[in-house]
Amino acid sequence: MSEQVVDKRRRLFLTAAATAVTGVGAAYVAVPFLSSMNPSDRAKAAGAPVEADIAKLEPGQLIRVEWRGKPVWVLKRTPEVMAELNAEGDYLRDPESNESEQPESCKNSGRSIKPEVFLAVGICTHLGCSPTFRPEVAPEDLGPEWKGGFFCPCHGSKFDLSGRVFAGVPAPLNLVVPPHEYITDSRIIIGSEGGQA
User: Do 119 and 53 lie in a common domain?
Assistant: First the structure.
């Protein structure tokens, strides 16, 4: 009779040990399998929305954020710049941005959701060079009509501080404004507009 008690204890111990080892083994196999279902870092970089914190962005300052392998500029405009944007238009090719790519929420003279914050993909619409940020007014090399903006050194295209292209330059369209939305006053999701990536 004592042999049966020992056998039951041994059987219970072996069953518990086998169950524990099986559970650990199943988890060991399941974790990599489930992880493989997540998009890779490359896939995330290819199209996933990115977040930008603009809490410390000062008026007149520009920061760069990478989205889909492209630079996105985030510029905080001054009240003086915003007043100039509403006044100009004669020397712009597409001042109302009727031909250019931008979200519906940015169809205005500032091409932005919030007037003081402007976002654009930092790639010239001519041949894909990256324009430089030139905030100074009337520099000698750009002329007296220059109120600040973006200048493409590759072929001389000029864009104002709303990314609108000047007339008579090689670039055919305004700079692209990416889809974006504000999740707080100081945080932007680039690549998502109203919950759609």
Answer: yes
CA 41 to chain centre: 16
- The domain tally of the chain equals 2
State the CATH number of the domain containing residue 121: 2.102.10.10
- Split at pLDDT 50, 70, 90, the class of 173 is very high
Among this protein's residues, is 126 annotated catalytic? no
Q: Which of 11, 44, 64, 155 is flagged as catalytic?
A: 155
Same domain, yes or no: 7 and 73: no
Q: What are 133-160's pLDDT values in tens digits? A: 999 988 999 888 888 999 999 999 999 9
Q: What is the pTM of this model?
A: 0.73
Angle at 96 between CA 158 and CA 126, to 5 degrees: 35
